[in-house]
Amino acid sequence: MGLYLLLVSGQVSFAQASKTSSSTSAEQEIIDLSKQKWQWMADKNVDKLAQLFDDKSKFVHMSGTWKKDEELEIIKTGSIWYKQADVHDVAVEFFDDNTAIIWSRITLVAMVRGAEAKTEFTVTEAYKKQGRTWKMLALTFSSVRDTHVIKH
């Protein structure tokens, strides 16, 4: 049984390593930026997020859609505290050298108006490269089952 578990865990690690190594450097840059964004949201680091979010960016949540300033205020005040986002799968597509969309299947633990919520989402993020910097144009949360699969 122990040998079986060792073999299975080795295959899982190999599959994850293969997926990462098959990503292009541009794909990996967007994946890393998205991951960093989740940490900034958990840390309520609105200064870093303000730099990442385009001035015309939009955020679609289960309870509404709003713009950059409102999203930053919600994060700053803790109206929604994105405590932890566990990313289970990621797909990235480029539409030209300067436009990327990333789909992430996540389990999000958040405090929403004082109550903890744990929700499965597929999150869609749109990015546009401006000069040498990526800016987030949109972030949309879609509530899904934990069996939801992102097609690659």
Characterise the protein shown here.
- The protein has 152 residues and is α+β, with helices and mostly antiparallel strands.
- It is 37% helix and 47% strand.
- The protein is built from four helices and six strands.
- Strands 2-1-6-5-4-3 form a six-stranded mixed β-sheet.
- Strand 1 and strand 2 form a beta hairpin.
- The longest helix has 21 residues, at 2-22.
- It is globular and about 40 Å long.
- Residues 1-21 have low confidence and may be disordered.
What's the topology here?
Elements: H1 2-22, H2 25-42, H3 46-52, E1 53-61, E2 64-67, H4 68-77, E3 80-96, E4 99-112, E5 115-130, E6 133-143
Parallel strand pairs: 1-6
Antiparallel strand pairs: 1-2, 3-4, 4-5, 5-6
Give the gist of this structure:
The chain has 152 residues and is α+β, with helices and mostly antiparallel strands.
Shape: globular
Termini separation comes to: 33 Å
Helicity level, as a percent range? 25-40%
Low-confidence stretches: 1-21
Roughly how many Å is the radius of gyration?
A: 17 Å
**Order of strands in the sheet with most strands:** 2-1-6-5-4-3
Tell me what portion of residues adopts beta-strand conformation.
over 45%
Task: Determine the structural class based on helices, strands and strand pairing.
Answer: alpha+beta
Number of helical elements: 4
Mean pLDDT: 86
Largest sheet: 6 strands, mixed
Count of strand segments = 6
Which series of helices and strands comes N to C?
A: HHHEEHEEEE
